[in-house]
Amino acid sequence: MENYRIDPAKGMEFGLYTLGDHLPNPIAGERISAEQRIHEFIELAQLAEQAGIDFFSVGESHQEYFATQAHAVVLSAIAQATEKIKISSSSTIISTSDPVRVYENFSTIDLISKGRAEIVAGRASRVGLFDLLGYDLRNYEELYEEKFELLLKINQEEVVNWEGEFRAPLKDARVLPRPQNGSLPIWRAVGGNPASAIKAGYAGVPMYLAHLGGPVASFKRAIDAYREAATQSGFDPTELPISTAGFFYTAETTQQAQKEYYPHINEGMKLTNGQGFPKQAFAQSDDLRTVINVGSPQQVIEKILYQHEQFGHQRFIAQMDFGGVPFDKLRKNIELIGTEILPAIKKYTAKQ
Fold this sequence. Notes:
Luciferase-like_dom; about 15% strand; about 45% helix; 11 helices; Luciferase-like_sf; monooxygenase; LLM class flavin-dependent oxidoreductase; TIM Barrel; 8-stranded parallel β-barrel; oxidoreductase activity, acting on paired donors, with incorporation or reduction of molecular oxygen; two-stranded antiparallel ribbon; alpha/beta
């Protein structure tokens, strides 16, 4: 785990992520300005750091109702505004980006943050950016695989020789600047599909597993498939970290948490994905065996520890700001994470 800057002795890492959505508050019926929303991301990262949270990441999306199209710029501001929290994309859409430019940007963020930057490389669940940036959606898989491979190569080799289908060749190319410690932790973003998890395992790279909802057992299958593929490919899976990422919200009681957060998830998904989130599926968050971590602090602690028991993962990343959640509610969530949830998770997951 040392190569990925993770210390199991300190317990499972807890992080926050934002997709960078810029959605109206469905209860108040108002939407803040993009300027205010971007400053919220920076302040959230600062509050997270003060609460002892390990990790903060920002997503990239190029459609209406989002404000972090230039997510690397936002991360750069966060790097300057914080001192110790790890920072990352979640994710960088490598399929429609030039891996050279991505690496230049994140190496620079790493130097600004003094060695705290990481990259999560994804393929885009919302595909409107293919038209916007001039890529053919029919090459969805091929673009991702080729560019992810090149990104890893740039990370591993200071002088790069490479040829592919979707980018001009590199001949004795030096991609600069180099990150503080010579390389960056680069994670492969994976949905619930075991086939994608298996590719991450074969490549021997850390896996960032996103989930919107469903039973823990179904995501365990993807994790088991990832570790098995890594072993078959000659890697030691105990040296490959796994992160999960999904909805999170806490309040005094589980009923209050569900009541406060559901309208934001449901109305936000209608605007960004074209359909809402099934209320019955969301209500199952009070079941220990489901992955949505919404509930009272004690409920959330028990769920995250159960998931850790099943997954054996090294990091959980919470998404709590989706759908126009008022900032005072986000601040209260961070307070509860820092005072109640984080101490319990660290206590029970730290390896002696």
